[in-house]
Amino acid sequence: MSVSSMNDMEAKSSERVIEVREFEASKDCLGVEDVERRCEVGPSGALSLFTDLLGDPICRVRHSPAFLMLVAEIGEEKEIVGMIRGCIKTVTCGKKLYRNGKNNKQPLPVFTKLAYILGLRVSPSHRRMGIGLKLVEKMEEWFRENGAEYSYIATESDNFASVKLFTNKCGYSKFRTPSILVNPVFAHRVNVSNRVTILKLGPNDAEYLYRRRFSTTEFFPRDIDSILNNKLSLGTFLAVPRGSHNADSWPGSDLFLLDPPESWAVLSVWNCKDVFKLEVRGASRVRRTLAKTTRVVDKALPFLKLPSVPEVFRPFGFHFLYGVGGEGPRADKMVKALCRHAHNFAKESGCSVVATEVASREPLRFGIPHWKTLSCAEDLWCIKRLGEDYSDGSVGDWTKSPPDLSIFVDPREF
Question: Which parts of the chain are coiled coil (predicted)?
Protein backbone atom coordinates (compact mmCIF):
# COMPACT_ATOMS: atom_id res chain seq x y z
CA MET A 1 0.00 0.00 0.00
CA SER A 2 1.34 3.42 -0.95
CA VAL A 3 1.99 6.17 1.55
CA SER A 4 -0.68 8.35 -0.08
CA SER A 5 -3.30 5.56 0.29
CA MET A 6 -2.43 5.15 3.97
CA ASN A 7 -2.72 8.91 4.49
CA ASP A 8 -6.13 8.88 2.80
CA MET A 9 -7.33 6.10 5.11
CA GLU A 10 -6.06 7.92 8.19
CA ALA A 11 -7.79 11.10 7.06
CA LYS A 12 -11.09 9.27 6.57
CA SER A 13 -10.69 7.62 9.97
CA SER A 14 -10.11 10.96 11.69
CA GLU A 15 -13.16 12.42 9.97
CA ARG A 16 -15.32 9.74 11.61
CA VAL A 17 -14.10 10.32 15.16
CA ILE A 18 -17.12 11.35 17.21
CA GLU A 19 -16.75 13.54 20.26
CA VAL A 20 -19.61 14.15 22.69
CA ARG A 21 -19.41 17.20 24.96
CA GLU A 22 -21.60 19.66 26.79
CA PHE A 23 -23.44 22.24 24.71
CA GLU A 24 -21.90 25.73 24.69
CA ALA A 25 -24.37 28.41 23.70
CA SER A 26 -21.69 30.88 22.64
CA LYS A 27 -20.48 28.70 19.76
CA ASP A 28 -22.96 25.86 19.18
CA CYS A 29 -26.29 27.54 18.45
CA LEU A 30 -25.89 27.77 14.68
CA GLY A 31 -24.74 24.16 14.37
CA VAL A 32 -27.61 22.91 16.54
CA GLU A 33 -30.16 24.93 14.58
CA ASP A 34 -28.84 23.48 11.33
CA VAL A 35 -29.34 19.91 12.60
CA GLU A 36 -32.81 20.78 13.91
CA ARG A 37 -33.82 22.13 10.50
CA ARG A 38 -32.79 18.89 8.83
CA CYS A 39 -34.56 16.61 11.27
CA GLU A 40 -38.25 15.91 11.13
CA VAL A 41 -40.11 15.87 14.41
CA GLY A 42 -43.37 13.94 14.60
CA PRO A 43 -45.17 10.95 13.10
CA SER A 44 -43.98 9.54 9.83
CA GLY A 45 -45.93 10.33 6.69
CA ALA A 46 -46.41 13.06 4.14
CA LEU A 47 -46.92 15.75 6.78
CA SER A 48 -44.05 16.62 9.10
CA LEU A 49 -43.97 18.67 12.27
CA PHE A 50 -41.03 21.05 12.68
CA THR A 51 -40.01 22.85 15.85
CA ASP A 52 -38.74 26.41 16.02
CA LEU A 53 -36.86 26.78 19.32
CA LEU A 54 -36.81 30.57 19.00
CA GLY A 55 -33.01 30.72 19.26
CA ASP A 56 -32.83 28.84 22.59
CA PRO A 57 -31.75 25.19 22.09
CA ILE A 58 -32.25 24.33 25.77
CA CYS A 59 -35.67 25.99 26.09
CA ARG A 60 -37.46 22.66 26.60
CA VAL A 61 -35.40 21.62 29.62
CA ARG A 62 -34.23 24.83 31.25
CA HIS A 63 -37.24 25.00 33.59
CA SER A 64 -36.48 21.59 35.14
CA PRO A 65 -34.65 21.28 38.49
CA ALA A 66 -31.52 19.89 36.78
CA PHE A 67 -30.80 19.72 33.07
CA LEU A 68 -28.03 19.12 30.54
CA MET A 69 -27.59 19.31 26.78
CA LEU A 70 -24.90 17.42 24.91
CA VAL A 71 -23.74 17.76 21.31
CA ALA A 72 -21.90 15.31 19.09
CA GLU A 73 -19.30 16.65 16.68
CA ILE A 74 -17.28 14.88 14.04
CA GLY A 75 -14.14 15.44 11.99
CA GLU A 76 -11.38 17.99 12.23
CA GLU A 77 -13.83 20.80 11.52
CA LYS A 78 -15.87 19.79 14.59
CA GLU A 79 -19.15 19.71 12.68
CA ILE A 80 -22.13 19.28 14.99
CA VAL A 81 -24.07 16.24 13.82
CA GLY A 82 -26.26 15.41 16.80
CA MET A 83 -27.56 16.53 20.15
CA ILE A 84 -29.51 15.30 23.15
CA ARG A 85 -31.23 16.96 26.09
CA GLY A 86 -31.91 15.53 29.51
CA CYS A 87 -33.34 16.60 32.85
CA ILE A 88 -33.83 15.15 36.32
CA LYS A 89 -36.64 15.57 38.81
CA THR A 90 -38.34 13.70 41.66
CA VAL A 91 -41.73 12.15 40.89
CA THR A 92 -44.29 9.73 42.29
CA CYS A 93 -43.69 6.14 41.21
CA GLY A 94 -46.32 4.49 43.40
CA LYS A 95 -48.10 4.74 46.71
CA LYS A 96 -48.22 3.11 50.10
CA LEU A 97 -50.91 3.06 52.77
CA TYR A 98 -50.29 4.94 55.97
CA ARG A 99 -52.44 4.02 58.94
CA ASN A 100 -53.81 7.20 60.50
CA GLY A 101 -55.90 6.05 63.42
CA LYS A 102 -57.55 2.66 63.92
CA ASN A 103 -59.34 2.17 60.63
CA ASN A 104 -58.22 5.14 58.54
CA LYS A 105 -55.67 4.22 55.89
CA GLN A 106 -54.33 7.16 53.93
CA PRO A 107 -52.43 6.64 50.65
CA LEU A 108 -49.07 8.40 50.55
CA PRO A 109 -46.85 8.93 47.48
CA VAL A 110 -43.63 7.01 47.00
CA PHE A 111 -41.08 9.19 45.23
CA THR A 112 -38.13 8.34 43.01
CA LYS A 113 -35.51 10.38 41.20
CA LEU A 114 -36.39 10.22 37.52
CA ALA A 115 -34.46 11.35 34.45
CA TYR A 116 -35.99 12.24 31.11
CA ILE A 117 -34.40 12.21 27.66
CA LEU A 118 -35.83 14.46 24.97
CA GLY A 119 -34.76 16.14 21.79
CA LEU A 120 -32.39 13.42 20.55
CA ARG A 121 -31.39 14.44 17.05
CA VAL A 122 -28.88 13.04 14.58
CA SER A 123 -28.22 14.68 11.23
CA PRO A 124 -29.77 12.58 8.42
CA SER A 125 -26.41 12.45 6.62
CA HIS A 126 -24.66 10.95 9.67
CA ARG A 127 -27.06 8.27 10.80
CA ARG A 128 -26.16 4.59 11.30
CA MET A 129 -22.80 5.61 12.77
CA GLY A 130 -23.65 4.99 16.43
CA ILE A 131 -23.98 8.69 17.21
CA GLY A 132 -27.43 8.38 18.79
CA LEU A 133 -26.27 5.50 21.00
CA LYS A 134 -23.19 7.39 22.13
CA LEU A 135 -25.26 10.46 23.01
CA VAL A 136 -27.69 8.36 25.07
CA GLU A 137 -24.87 6.59 26.92
CA LYS A 138 -23.15 9.87 27.79
CA MET A 139 -26.43 11.35 29.03
CA GLU A 140 -27.09 8.29 31.17
CA GLU A 141 -23.67 8.70 32.77
CA TRP A 142 -24.74 12.15 33.92
CA PHE A 143 -28.05 10.76 35.17
CA ARG A 144 -26.28 8.17 37.33
CA GLU A 145 -23.76 10.67 38.65
CA ASN A 146 -26.70 12.77 39.86
CA GLY A 147 -28.53 9.92 41.56
CA ALA A 148 -31.33 9.23 39.09
CA GLU A 149 -32.88 5.79 39.62
CA TYR A 150 -34.81 5.62 36.35
CA SER A 151 -34.65 7.16 32.89
CA TYR A 152 -37.51 7.45 30.43
CA ILE A 153 -38.18 8.76 26.96
CA ALA A 154 -41.26 9.60 24.92
CA THR A 155 -41.44 8.82 21.22
CA GLU A 156 -44.03 8.13 18.56
CA SER A 157 -45.01 4.47 18.43
CA ASP A 158 -44.41 4.46 14.67
CA ASN A 159 -40.94 6.02 14.96
CA PHE A 160 -39.35 2.61 14.47
CA ALA A 161 -35.76 3.86 14.40
CA SER A 162 -36.16 5.57 17.78
CA VAL A 163 -38.01 2.64 19.34
CA LYS A 164 -35.37 0.21 18.08
CA LEU A 165 -32.51 2.34 19.40
CA PHE A 166 -33.93 2.57 22.91
CA THR A 167 -35.45 -0.89 23.30
CA ASN A 168 -32.88 -2.99 21.41
CA LYS A 169 -29.62 -1.14 22.05
CA CYS A 170 -30.13 0.98 25.17
CA GLY A 171 -32.03 -1.45 27.37
CA TYR A 172 -35.31 0.45 27.67
CA SER A 173 -38.68 -1.31 27.86
CA LYS A 174 -42.06 -0.13 26.66
CA PHE A 175 -43.84 1.30 29.68
CA ARG A 176 -46.85 3.55 29.08
CA THR A 177 -48.90 4.56 26.03
CA PRO A 178 -50.61 7.88 26.81
CA SER A 179 -52.65 9.84 24.30
CA ILE A 180 -51.83 13.33 23.03
CA LEU A 181 -55.11 15.16 22.43
CA VAL A 182 -54.99 18.28 20.26
CA ASN A 183 -57.86 20.65 19.56
CA PRO A 184 -57.78 23.54 17.07
CA VAL A 185 -58.45 27.09 18.20
CA PHE A 186 -61.30 28.33 16.03
CA ALA A 187 -61.86 31.84 14.70
CA HIS A 188 -64.87 32.09 17.03
CA ARG A 189 -65.24 31.67 20.77
CA VAL A 190 -66.88 28.49 22.03
CA ASN A 191 -69.68 28.41 24.58
CA VAL A 192 -69.01 27.31 28.14
CA SER A 193 -71.88 25.55 29.91
CA ASN A 194 -73.93 27.94 32.03
CA ARG A 195 -74.37 25.11 34.53
CA VAL A 196 -70.71 25.40 35.49
CA THR A 197 -68.78 28.08 37.36
CA ILE A 198 -65.07 28.38 36.59
CA LEU A 199 -62.77 29.82 39.24
CA LYS A 200 -59.14 30.78 38.87
CA LEU A 201 -57.02 29.54 41.77
CA GLY A 202 -53.90 31.22 43.07
CA PRO A 203 -50.65 29.20 43.07
CA ASN A 204 -50.92 28.36 46.80
CA ASP A 205 -54.51 27.12 46.50
CA ALA A 206 -53.61 25.16 43.37
CA GLU A 207 -50.62 23.55 45.05
CA TYR A 208 -52.66 22.52 48.08
CA LEU A 209 -55.37 20.98 45.89
CA TYR A 210 -52.90 19.09 43.72
CA ARG A 211 -50.90 17.74 46.67
CA ARG A 212 -53.99 16.64 48.59
CA ARG A 213 -55.80 15.00 45.69
CA PHE A 214 -53.23 14.03 43.05
CA SER A 215 -49.84 13.51 44.72
CA THR A 216 -50.21 9.72 44.45
CA THR A 217 -50.77 9.96 40.68
CA GLU A 218 -47.97 8.35 38.69
CA PHE A 219 -45.30 10.86 37.53
CA PHE A 220 -46.60 13.59 39.87
CA PRO A 221 -43.65 16.04 40.34
CA ARG A 222 -42.65 16.70 43.93
CA ASP A 223 -41.76 20.28 42.97
CA ILE A 224 -45.30 21.04 41.75
CA ASP A 225 -44.96 24.43 43.46
CA SER A 226 -42.11 25.37 41.11
CA ILE A 227 -44.29 24.55 38.11
CA LEU A 228 -47.32 26.48 39.34
CA ASN A 229 -45.21 29.54 40.19
CA ASN A 230 -43.33 29.49 36.89
CA LYS A 231 -43.93 32.48 34.62
CA LEU A 232 -45.05 30.09 31.87
CA SER A 233 -47.88 28.71 34.03
CA LEU A 234 -50.82 30.92 33.09
CA GLY A 235 -53.18 29.76 35.80
CA THR A 236 -55.07 26.91 37.41
CA PHE A 237 -58.82 26.73 36.83
CA LEU A 238 -61.43 24.89 38.87
CA ALA A 239 -64.88 23.95 37.57
CA VAL A 240 -67.75 23.49 40.03
CA PRO A 241 -71.55 23.30 39.67
CA ARG A 242 -73.09 26.74 39.35
CA GLY A 243 -74.36 27.94 42.69
CA SER A 244 -71.92 25.95 44.80
CA HIS A 245 -69.05 28.47 44.83
CA ASN A 246 -68.08 31.75 43.22
CA ALA A 247 -65.11 34.09 43.33
CA ASP A 248 -66.56 36.05 46.26
CA SER A 249 -67.42 33.01 48.37
CA TRP A 250 -64.35 30.89 47.61
CA PRO A 251 -63.24 29.41 50.97
CA GLY A 252 -59.79 28.24 49.89
CA SER A 253 -58.72 24.77 48.77
CA ASP A 254 -58.41 23.39 52.31
CA LEU A 255 -62.03 24.11 53.22
CA PHE A 256 -63.19 23.26 49.70
CA LEU A 257 -61.77 19.75 49.98
CA LEU A 258 -63.38 19.23 53.38
CA ASP A 259 -66.80 19.59 51.76
CA PRO A 260 -66.49 19.44 47.96
CA PRO A 261 -69.46 19.43 45.58
CA GLU A 262 -70.58 16.13 44.11
CA SER A 263 -68.53 16.77 40.96
CA TRP A 264 -65.65 19.10 40.17
CA ALA A 265 -62.59 19.28 37.92
CA VAL A 266 -59.31 21.14 37.65
CA LEU A 267 -56.62 21.86 35.07
CA SER A 268 -53.70 24.25 34.61
CA VAL A 269 -52.47 26.06 31.48
CA TRP A 270 -48.84 26.23 30.35
CA ASN A 271 -47.67 28.78 27.79
CA CYS A 272 -45.65 26.82 25.21
CA LYS A 273 -46.04 29.72 22.78
CA ASP A 274 -43.23 31.68 24.42
CA VAL A 275 -40.89 28.65 24.54
CA PHE A 276 -41.08 27.23 21.03
CA LYS A 277 -43.32 27.18 17.98
CA LEU A 278 -44.41 24.41 15.67
CA GLU A 279 -45.03 24.26 11.94
CA VAL A 280 -46.70 21.64 9.76
CA ARG A 281 -44.85 21.11 6.51
CA GLY A 282 -45.50 18.96 3.51
CA ALA A 283 -49.18 19.84 3.06
CA SER A 284 -50.52 19.99 -0.47
CA ARG A 285 -51.81 23.22 -1.99
CA VAL A 286 -55.33 21.77 -1.97
CA ARG A 287 -55.16 21.06 1.75
CA ARG A 288 -53.83 24.53 2.49
CA THR A 289 -56.59 26.14 0.41
CA LEU A 290 -59.33 24.13 2.14
CA ALA A 291 -57.96 25.05 5.55
CA LYS A 292 -57.84 28.74 4.62
CA THR A 293 -61.40 28.59 3.32
CA THR A 294 -62.70 27.26 6.66
CA ARG A 295 -61.01 30.16 8.48
CA VAL A 296 -62.41 32.77 6.10
CA VAL A 297 -65.96 31.42 6.42
CA ASP A 298 -65.68 31.05 10.19
CA LYS A 299 -64.44 34.61 10.59
CA ALA A 300 -67.00 36.10 8.21
CA LEU A 301 -69.94 34.18 9.70
CA PRO A 302 -69.03 33.66 13.37
CA PHE A 303 -72.67 33.18 14.41
CA LEU A 304 -72.68 29.85 12.53
CA LYS A 305 -70.00 28.51 14.93
CA LEU A 306 -68.41 26.48 12.13
CA PRO A 307 -65.23 24.61 13.10
CA SER A 308 -62.22 26.02 11.23
CA VAL A 309 -58.71 24.71 10.65
CA PRO A 310 -56.21 27.14 12.23
CA GLU A 311 -53.08 28.40 10.47
CA VAL A 312 -50.68 25.54 11.20
CA PHE A 313 -48.72 25.69 7.94
CA ARG A 314 -46.49 28.43 9.28
CA PRO A 315 -44.99 28.74 12.80
CA PHE A 316 -47.73 28.70 15.42
CA GLY A 317 -47.97 28.70 19.19
CA PHE A 318 -50.09 26.65 21.55
CA HIS A 319 -51.11 26.20 25.16
CA PHE A 320 -50.62 22.92 27.01
CA LEU A 321 -53.24 21.78 29.53
CA TYR A 322 -51.71 19.90 32.45
CA GLY A 323 -52.85 18.60 35.83
CA VAL A 324 -56.19 17.50 34.40
CA GLY A 325 -58.18 15.85 37.16
CA GLY A 326 -61.49 15.74 38.95
CA GLU A 327 -63.96 13.78 41.00
CA GLY A 328 -67.62 12.86 40.79
CA PRO A 329 -70.09 11.47 38.24
CA ARG A 330 -70.08 14.70 36.19
CA ALA A 331 -66.34 15.31 36.33
CA ASP A 332 -65.99 14.72 32.59
CA LYS A 333 -68.59 17.43 31.93
CA MET A 334 -66.61 19.75 34.21
CA VAL A 335 -63.42 18.98 32.28
CA LYS A 336 -65.22 19.75 29.02
CA ALA A 337 -66.21 23.17 30.37
CA LEU A 338 -62.63 23.82 31.48
CA CYS A 339 -61.29 22.87 28.04
CA ARG A 340 -63.75 25.25 26.39
CA HIS A 341 -62.64 28.00 28.76
CA ALA A 342 -59.01 27.17 27.87
CA HIS A 343 -59.89 27.36 24.17
CA ASN A 344 -61.18 30.91 24.56
CA PHE A 345 -58.15 31.83 26.63
CA ALA A 346 -55.86 30.45 23.90
CA LYS A 347 -57.78 32.36 21.23
CA GLU A 348 -57.21 35.63 23.08
CA SER A 349 -53.50 34.75 23.33
CA GLY A 350 -53.13 34.13 19.58
CA CYS A 351 -52.60 30.37 19.79
CA SER A 352 -53.58 27.97 17.03
CA VAL A 353 -54.15 24.83 19.11
CA VAL A 354 -54.53 23.61 22.67
CA ALA A 355 -53.07 20.25 23.62
CA THR A 356 -52.93 17.88 26.54
CA GLU A 357 -51.64 14.39 27.27
CA VAL A 358 -53.43 11.82 29.40
CA ALA A 359 -53.18 8.14 30.24
CA SER A 360 -54.73 5.81 27.69
CA ARG A 361 -57.29 4.66 30.27
CA GLU A 362 -57.95 8.10 31.79
CA PRO A 363 -61.71 8.27 32.52
CA LEU A 364 -61.78 12.05 32.02
CA ARG A 365 -60.40 11.90 28.48
CA PHE A 366 -63.95 11.61 27.13
CA GLY A 367 -64.56 15.16 28.31
CA ILE A 368 -61.55 16.58 26.44
CA PRO A 369 -62.47 18.03 23.01
CA HIS A 370 -59.97 17.09 20.31
CA TRP A 371 -59.60 16.38 16.64
CA LYS A 372 -58.54 12.86 15.86
CA THR A 373 -56.52 13.95 12.81
CA LEU A 374 -54.41 16.29 14.94
CA SER A 375 -54.00 13.96 17.90
CA CYS A 376 -51.80 10.96 18.67
CA ALA A 377 -53.83 8.06 20.01
CA GLU A 378 -50.78 6.21 21.29
CA ASP A 379 -47.65 8.02 22.33
CA LEU A 380 -44.98 5.65 23.63
CA TRP A 381 -43.04 6.06 26.86
CA CYS A 382 -40.09 3.73 27.42
CA ILE A 383 -38.30 3.35 30.75
CA LYS A 384 -35.03 1.95 32.07
CA ARG A 385 -33.73 1.22 35.53
CA LEU A 386 -30.33 2.86 35.76
CA GLY A 387 -28.92 0.65 38.52
CA GLU A 388 -29.63 -2.40 40.64
CA ASP A 389 -28.28 -0.95 43.88
CA TYR A 390 -31.37 1.12 44.62
CA SER A 391 -33.86 0.16 47.31
CA ASP A 392 -37.06 -1.36 45.95
CA GLY A 393 -39.07 -0.01 48.86
CA SER A 394 -42.82 -0.59 48.83
CA VAL A 395 -43.17 -0.20 45.06
CA GLY A 396 -40.64 -2.68 43.80
CA ASP A 397 -39.07 -2.27 40.38
CA TRP A 398 -41.14 0.52 38.82
CA THR A 399 -40.40 -0.70 35.29
CA LYS A 400 -42.46 -3.82 36.02
CA SER A 401 -45.46 -2.07 37.56
CA PRO A 402 -48.87 -2.10 35.85
CA PRO A 403 -50.24 1.23 34.58
CA ASP A 404 -52.58 3.34 36.70
CA LEU A 405 -55.71 4.99 35.35
CA SER A 406 -54.03 8.42 35.39
CA ILE A 407 -50.63 10.01 34.91
CA PHE A 408 -49.38 13.51 35.57
CA VAL A 409 -47.66 14.98 32.50
CA ASP A 410 -45.07 17.60 33.39
CA PRO A 411 -45.55 20.64 31.11
CA ARG A 412 -41.82 21.39 31.28
CA GLU A 413 -41.18 18.28 29.20
CA PHE A 414 -43.92 18.41 26.58
Answer: none
Report whether pLDDT(4) > 70.
no
Q: Per-domain residue ranges for the chain?
A: 20-177, 180-376
Q: What is the CA radius of gyration of the chain?
A: 23
- Residue 152 to residue 218: CA distance in whole angstroms: 13
Is the pLDDT at 350 greater than 60? The verdict is: yes
Tell me the whole-structure pTM to 2 decimals.
0.91
Q: Is the pLDDT score of 8 beyond 50?
A: no
Is residue 32 very low, low, confident or very high in pLDDT (cuts 50, 70, 90)?
very high
What is the dotted CATH code of the domain comprising 180-376? 3.40.630
Where does the pLDDT of residue 392 fall: very low under 50, low under 70, confident under 90, or very high at 90 and above? low
CA 353 vs CA 186, 271, 371: distances in Å: 9, 12, 10
d(CA 65, CA 413): 12
Q: What is the pLDDT of residues 247-263, one digit of tens each?
A: 999 999 999 999 999 99
* 279 class by beta-carbon count within 10 Å (0-12 exposed, 13-18 middle, 19+ buried): middle
Intrachain domains 20-177 and 180-376 with the same fold: yes
Q: How far apart are CA 94 and CA 391, in angstroms?
A: 14
Average pLDDT value for the chain? 90
Given a cut of 80, is residue 233 above it in pLDDT?
A: yes
